[in-house]
Each structure stands twice: as structure tokens, then as C-alpha cells.
UniProtKB/TrEMBL annotation:
The keyword Magnesium does not apply. PROSITE patterns: HTH_GNTR. This is GntR family transcriptional regulator. Keywords: DNA-binding, Transcription, Transcription regulation. It comes from Paracoccus marinaquae. Residues 13-80 form the HTH gntR-type domain.
Amino acid sequence: MTSSLSLQEKPIASIGDSVLQQIRFDIVRGRLQPRQRLRLERLRETYGASVTTLREILNRLVAEGLVVAEGQRGFEVAPVCIAELRELAEMRIMLESHALRRSLSEGSLEWEAGVVSAHHMLQSVEHGLIGGDSGAIETWVRYDWNFHRATVAACDMPALMATHANIFERYLRYHLLALDFRGAAVAKDHERLRDLVIARQTDATLVLLEAHIRAGMEHIIRAGRIPA
């Protein structure tokens, strides 16, 4: 998986933007571990950006909740804990449910086709994982994002979509730290969600979405890799 995991989907306009995307990806992927000190000189050697640019990038990632500023001591990767995971799950339910409700009301035939296409790709990876291809978990996480993003793509609220992307990205960080696939149950959820979305069954879709997110959160917690 490449740095396309970054969920903001903004065009790369400069070296600074490219480095921002790469550091964000490395945090979400776990290559930069929770609470790891982010020393500017070492980052300069790794990412090839100036100290001034890196400081600006890290301050932006502080605003996104992926980095913590330590005052005079510098920066570190934001810690993880079960309490934050639960909060992110609740935020995701709130934002995604609202965006999904609007998409179900306003979505076009082209939007439906996008949902079906995104699910087809996700389903292919899920079948591989169910068959024992454990190395595809990172790809599954990316396609899971693509599918859920497709379902809400017709909401026509850019600020909501940007906030949702940030919360989803932070939530996916926990998935990638756990590196554990939920199995046939999650694949069945996605298939049912696709069908309910295409049928525009709003109430049933929102009930399933909330149950799906909560089940995923509990699965991450049971994996035992997130501190209390």
C-alpha cells in the first residue's frame, strides 16, 4: 500500500504537501509509533524537508490529532488508548450517519454505481482474507475506506466530508495497529450495507452502519494491542 492511504485526497502542490502526506501516512500506518519522539533533525534526514517546513507540518498534524506538541521539548506521535478509540467511533457514527442520510436522499445513479464499484473491490479483498491471505489487511483497510467514502459521497457538504475524513483516518490508525481482520461477519455487513444503500432504505441503513462501527471498535479492543 502506498501513501494513497491518506484520506484527505488533496492534490500535492509542493514538496511540503508531499512530506505532510507521507508523515501522516507513516503515523496512520504505524511506522511512526504512538508516543515516538519526532526529532526535527532526524525527520529532515528521513523526509528531505527543511526544519522550518517540518515544524509547520507537525503543527498541522497537531491540529489533526495525530501529533502532540510537548512545549519546549518538541513533538511526539499522539498516543492511543481505548477511551479515544471509543470517542472516535462515536464521532464517526455521528458524522457518517448524517452524511449517509443526505446521500441516500440526494444521490444520483452515478453515485449508486460508485458505491457498487467500491464494494466490488472491497469484496474481492475480503474474500482473499477469509481464504487466508492475511497479508492483505492493509489493502483491506484502504478499500474499506473507499467503500464507506463512496456511500456518503453524495452528501454535498465539503466541510462535513473533510471532518469525517480526519476522524476516519484516526480511526483507521487503530485498525492498522491491531492488524486484525474481523472475518466473514464484516464482509456480510458490507454486502448488506451496499444493498440497503442502493435500495435507499434509510432507517435500516443507519441502524446497520452504527452496529457495524461498534462491532469493529469492539473487535479492535479485543485484539489486545491498544492500551487502556
